[in-house]
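In the previous chapter we treated chains in isolation. Here, by contrast, the input contains two separate entities that must be folded as one system, with a combined length of 732 residues.
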Amino acid sequence: MSELVLETEKLDKVYKLGGRQVRALSDVNIQVKKGDFISIMGPSGSGKTTLLNMLGCLDKPTYGKVVLDGVNITKVPEKGLFKIRKYKIGFVFQTFNLMPYLNAIENVELPMEGTKKSGDEKRKRAHELLKMVGLSEREEHRQHLLSAGEQQRVAIARALANNPAIVLADEPTGNLDSKTGYEIVRLLGKLNIDQGTTIIMVTHDSRIAACAGRMLFLSDGRLLAKEKQGTHLMEKVLTCPYCGKEIQPDDAFCPRCGKEV
Amino acid sequence: MFVKVNNLGVLTRAVRNVSRRKMRAFLVIVALGFSMAIMISIPAGIVANQEATQGMTKNLASTISSMQEEINKTTTLIEVSASSGRGTSISIPFGMPSGTPPSGFEQKEVFTNETVGDEIRTIEGVKDVVPFLEKSSNETTSQTIDTPRGSFTISRPLYTITGVSLNSSFIDSYSVLPTDITAGRALQEGDSGVVLMSSNLTDYYGVGVGDTIEIYGESFTIVGIYEPTSQGRTEGREVYMNISDAQTVTDNVGNVSRFDVYAEDVSYVDGIAEVIKAAYSDLYVTTYEDRLANLENMQERYTQSLDNAESTLAQTQATATEEIIVAVAATSLIVLFVMLYTVRERTKEIGILKAIGFSNWNIMSQFMLEGILISIIAGVVGVAIGSIGAPILTSLLLPRVNLFSGSSGRFQLGFGSVNPGTTGSTTTTASLTPDLILLAFGAAMLLGALGSLYPAWRASRTSPMEALRYE
């Protein structure tokens, strides 16, 4: 049995909003093994992002615990959390969140600032990562010169900079067209298979969610008992939603009906 | 505890962040630059004022002490003059509107008959009577005089001609001629058609010993040049010649301006003075005691003026302190508000940086460095503005220190005069010293750090989750 990378136990989050209590998460228990590619699905307001914030040390649960790579992060004082975020977690955001005043390679180097790596080592690592996400030619480009898909690739490379135990992706395809979205999720899948990167991806898009190895469902802050085995994008056959013809992930238009897919 | 900061990375990012909003950075830097310029110009102005006051005090002290010496040497001298004052003095009433040439600025030259000297010599106890003829040159020069009410341009005689009785016993016994000869020789008995000139006049003409100059249409050969001292008797441009030459050339045959009457002994002085006063009511008689009283009077006025100057200086310093405090506060506040705005504007960026593992210290040092960087650039701008505009800034911001602000606007030095426009007021030329420039950079760094401390601290305390949600 693979080792556990992440485990939550009876995770509760209660917000106080104008004097009334809102339960955003309730009794969430998740176990993530090394090398898992998990998607968490749910409608808006189901608590997906709240859960991801708990897992990513951005927020503390009201009750319960989160154990990441053997460390109970709910017990780590605020001052020490940055180390967990730096070394154990890689974030991928819906809006990419690159620094506009840095070019691609500098953005990838950013999380390595303050680590023991020398300048050359940082540059070498960033170079490798950008090559891995297929952006070797775009290293010197700043955000405004990169397409949305390219920006998200840079963000993925940045998330991997310190070789984290887990990558947390919050709606990584939310700001992308469906074709680019598939490319991105395919890249995540490839990293998962080739590098063994553990990934948790939050999405409300069932087609994207289905690309993961395992699908969890969240509704009103509760993890539903049903858990689906994902098709994993690497093995999935894509079809045109209009005519049913098999299409390739790179296709922008259906080769038969010509509609945008 | 804290993760070591990769300084190069932080600095590079600080530079890029500052240059991201170019117009804002420019405006902030110019505003801060002016504050810095004020901060460094004011101390420069104060130092200049202090130095000027100290210089003045020193000069006046030395003038008074040498005059005292001179007076002490001439206890037996009774000055008998046809006019009340000596030299060309200028009186400018303070209430006069700017631009109006003051009336009566030209000294009226009064003469008396030289036979009066012969009569004085017969008074009991008189040892010698030395006649002098003093006459303004026919050439004139214009001079601008600054007063608190404005500037006046007036025409003054270029120099004074002093005709001296070249009797060798007079020359040897009394100080009838300047002694500080720098070229050629002094005048001597029997000289005629020759002159002894002050170096400031030979410099003015560009002439030397052996050259000839024209005075009232007559040619004179320069036999000697002397260095005028800064006090009374030999101040200004002067030409010394034989009294008979002076009388002839200025058309004053038989006339003299004054007599230096020497008594056999100090005990005769009062008696002689009384006799002269009784016999010649139109002549002005000054004895050792009068001169001493004058000097004391002058000393008193100097002391008063210096006290005034010192109190003005104290006021100036108080004003300067207030202005510096305002400038310091303004600088810190500008940095504070700009950095607060920057932190607010970049809230999301702070959230991202925190999410990818930046510590509170990393965030804080980032924003503080940006604040300090802006301030240091502003320091450079401030030094640049200060080095060009320090005199203007100080004259705008500091009250003017005027050492001589008596009601008459004039000081009679007994043997001459000090003109308020030329030597009376301090020239406060504020200039930046390396010390001040260093101070400016130190202040820039400190104020940058001070002003950005709170915004940076606030940035570091931002919750990453809330910051990420910020749009």
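Chain A touches chain B at residues 53, 56, 58-59, 79, 82-83, 85-87, 89, 91, 93, 97, 99-102, 109-111, 113-115, 119, 158-159, 162 (CB under 8 Å). The radius of gyration of chain A is 19 Å. Compare these points with the single-chain example from earlier in the chapter.
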